[in-house]
Amino acid sequence: MIVLKFIGYGFTAIIIGLLFMGIGRKYTARIQRRYGPPFWQAFIDVTKLFSKQSLSHNWIMDFGILMGFAGIVGTILFMPIGPWHFFSLMNGNIVIIMYFMTIGSLGMAMGVSASGNPNSTIGISRALTLMVGYEIPFVIAVIGLIFVSKSSLLGTMVSLQSGGIMNWNIIKYPFGFIAVEMALQAMLGEKPFDVITAPSEIASGPMVELSGKMMGLAFLQHAAQIFLETGIVVNLFLGGANNIWEFFLKQFVLFILSLTVNAISPRFKFEDAVKWLWTWPTVFALIQLLIIILT
Question: Where do the H-state alpha helices sit in the chain?
Fold first, then answer.
């Protein structure tokens, strides 16, 4: 039963993430007055990648990619998905989730660094530095919610938001939501924070040495990250959900908002991206924390 539940969680996250990616490509194309690929293109891409041969430099590269993918899927198990709770006793400890989220980035860093390609090294160094940039405002905002909820469990935070939209944390703590939403843009790797891949600068960054099944796993990891990161914000600020379809809809709204910003924004320079994250979202998060402490 536990195994089936684990497979169900991972399969759901990946399918929804791939679906969002496909719809997102179509949505972005229409904003830019292009036709764009069909919304199921992401599924086609993954199928093609897993049908091709992978080139590997060493076992560390392979292990790192697997570690990154498994880390993200494992983290999803700690997150409430509407009424679904894999670990019922923990009920979504946000501290554990934030800690385990880094495994995905660190696994990818280990894998692509072992390839020896300088573009991969540049890309992953940007990714790890940007992670420090967006985690600071995100953590500050989460600390405020833990303080008012008197709990680090997402299940408790969701239950405190029951009773209607006016009880949602987005209404009660708007500055915190603004900070997290800004950080989410960087977490998803969308413009103006797409400095990690930056195709016109460093040939797609960390992904440049990946091929075949390894590239497919990286693709699935990104899909799972979309599901995880939008799901966390839904639980923190949008009241969670009474059913999985409501949960998916709220995730989709957050993702489309991110893609809208992506479609109309230029890319920050790397140093400007980190500086911006340490300025505006951090200021909003600190304002919200002070309001919570002083009221």
Answer: 2-31, 41-50, 59-76, 94-113, 118-149, 154-160, 169-172, 174-187, 199-202, 212-237, 244-264, 270-277, 280-294
